[in-house]
Each structure stands twice: as structure tokens, then as C-alpha cells.
Amino acid sequence: MPNPADLPWVDMIGYSGGALTIWGMFRKTMIPLRLGAIGGNVGFLIFGLLAPSYPTLITHAVLLPLNTIRMFQMMRLVREIRESSGQDNSLEPLLPFMRREQSKAGTVLFRKDYRPDRMIVIHSGTVLLEELGTRCGEGDVLGEIGAFTPDNHRTCTAVCETDCVFHTLSNEAMVQLYYQNPRFGMFIVRIIVQRLLKNWRDANAATKPMPM
Known about the structure:
single chain, alpha+beta, 5 helices
């Protein structure tokens, strides 16, 4: 009876596993990369069993469940991002993780060109953004852009016009949440885009000629 290791088709299984692994490595996104890796693991598992090659068998027996778990984690992340895109901009679920603070009228919350240290959600009161001449009130978010600017600096100065109550989130925690929580990441992107669109509309309105 011929040894299975001497059969050409056993080698073909090994080559197929290698081809699938290489195909996955050429993919530009994570899910196809993991699919290629899983296909390669299955091919090398069969090859290692028939050859027999126990180092190959054991290595890919460990890698197969790992790649499978990572692929389903990535698929879940993509699903959560898609679901979060249809939700509102409420930060209610995050409030338990934020710190409640109070500031008196006239308090400077942060200055332009300073390094950001926190994101602020206004619970009550009014805050003036001096360089923009804009007043922010209940529910508005401040300080979220500074953490993502190329030079990592504040873009304006914020001063309390009235006594204010805030919910704050440290800059470090904000960046971690941005990468770990799809809903929070989508919220930050929306807030930044909304602010940019508002600034664009305000600038466009300012350049329109006055009616005679």
C-alpha cells in the first residue's frame, strides 16, 4: 500500500494551503486577510496530517481557531459601526465614565494653541469660543477636535460666560474610546463634520454681498 506522503495530491494540498495564505496576505482589508489565513490553516492541517508533519499540524491547529476568532471579531466590529451610523449623537451611555465638573463665570476652560487634555460636554451654562465669536450651550461638545489635529493643539479659547456644569473625559480616555468603541468613534466624526460644515456655511454667508 503506498504511503500517503508519496502521493502527489498530498503535496498539492500543501501548495493550496500556501497559495491561500499568500492570497490573504495580498488583501488590503482585514476580513479577506483572515479568510485567506483560515483557508491556509485548513490546507496545512490536512497536509500535516497526511504527510505526516506534526510541527505543521500543531502550528496550524493553534492558528486556525485564533484566525477564526479574529475574523468574527472584525465582522462584529464592522456590524457595530454600520449600526452606529444610524443612531443619534447621544452620549448618555458614556456619562457614567465621565467626570462631572463645575466652573464659575469667567473661567478659562482652555486656550488656543495649548495641548488638549480633555473633551467637555456642557450640561448647563454658556461658553464663549473667543476666536470664533460662538456661544455654546447645553449638550454642546468642546475640545474634541484638538486631540485629532496634526499638531495636537487647541484651535480656539473657551471661556465660561455663566456658571457652568460639565461632563468631562480625559484626552487619553477619549482617544482610547475612539479606537475601541465604534459608537463613540462615529459620534466624534459626526461632531467634527457638523462643526466644519457650520463653519463653512458661516464663512459662505459672510462673503455674500449685502442686498442694496
